[in-house]
Amino acid sequence: MKLSIIIPVFNEEKTILPVLEKVNKVVIDDVRKQIIVVNDGSTDKTINKIKNFATKNPNIEIINHSKNQGKGAAVISGIKNATGDFIVIQDADLEYNPEDIGKLVKLVQDKKTQVVYGTRLNRLPSFSRDERTPQFLLHYAGNKFLSLVTSMLYGEWITDMETCYKLFSKKSIDGINLKAKGFELEPEITAKLMRKGYKILEVPISTNPRGYSEGKKLNTVRDGLIAFWTLLKYRIVD
Question: Which of 93, 104, 107, 177 is the most exposed place for a label (fewest CB within 10 A)?
Answer without folding.
Answer: 177
